[in-house]
Amino acid sequence: MVETAALPAVLILNWRDLRNPEGGGSELYAEQVAASLARRGHAVTIMCAAHSHGAPEERTPDGVRIVRRGGRHTVYARAAWEYLRGRLGRPAMVIDVQNGLPFLSRLYARRPVVLLVHHVHREQWRVVLGPLAARFGWWVESWLSPRVHRGCRYVAVSESTRNELSSLGVDPERITIIHNGTPPAVGALAPRSAEPTLLVLGRLVPHKRVEVALRVVAALPGVRLVVAGQGWWLEPLREEAARLGVSDRVRFAGFVDEGEKQRLLAESWAMLVPSLKEGWGLSVIEAAAHGTPAVAFRNAGGVAESVVDGETGFLADSEEEFLALCARLVADPALRTAMGETARAHAGRFTWDETGKRFAALVDEITG
Q1: pLDDT, tens only, 189-224
Q2: What's the pTM value of the predicted model, to 2 decimals?
Q3: 81 and 214 within one domain
Q4: Which stretches within 104-172 are classed as H helix?
Q5: Residue 235 lies in a domain
Q6: Looking at the DSSP assignment, which residues form a beta bridge with residue 316?
């Protein structure tokens, strides 16, 4: 199949897409970039794992072709097979999204390859996998990938990710930082909740450490928590909420559509991000767009950049401090208002339009 678009074709390899129940910020980033490139005239294909919530192949309203093949672990090999059989078109460039494991597309795609990295998974391997698998995953990420992709360009979503990649031997001069964007909040979709309400937004997996938020609620009588998202760690979280005696004050909302998500962001008094590691902290900026401050951990990667400590929210150095900062926000409406106003202005600096423009410029530079 020969691409007929006026601009060079681009292939994006990502292990999931947004329709996947486990899809999250990484998938949103990839699809926003894909849509932006397609609107500019590039033929864009996303190859990802198959799942029951999406057809084997579809085309988005922006013209992005999404191909779903293979499973959670076989998608990497399947991508190589589909590419070599010519089923993914003839891209002028490949964007290899390294979510811990890269597709190693440089080994078979005789085209320029750009590695897109949200964060380095150093701490997460042991949390998500057993000892042997974790060791293998970290070896691929820290040793094999930097060597296979020596000479390739990289995109990092934050300065912290750029620094981590540099520590693995990636030439910092080859790393471009292109931040996440966020859509502007359209008015006040809902008033603030009359009751103190905190929000956790994201996939329910161990390294998101939602248990920390549950312990915050247990320590603050009268405070409610909404956990929006789905994942295989849901039942252990329900059990922990019951053990702490807070089941009546915690609502597990499951998957929420965009409208419901925006309503929750507007209603909440604060966004909690207790995650072990985030490349940027997209939910932080989404909340900020509604004037909702965030509390996160200082050593959790890119959130130390998406949260301006003491201005748009707080960064904690320990769980005890995390709890104390949450308590402070709940108790001080003037502080919440001031931080919310600063957060809203901060969020205005990060738009998907700007992300798309910067990525398009990189594509032009590499393929031009």
Answers
A1: 678 999 999 999 988 989 899 999 999 999 999 999
A2: 0.82
A3: no
A4: 124-128, 131-139, 145-148, 159-167
A5: yes
A6: 297
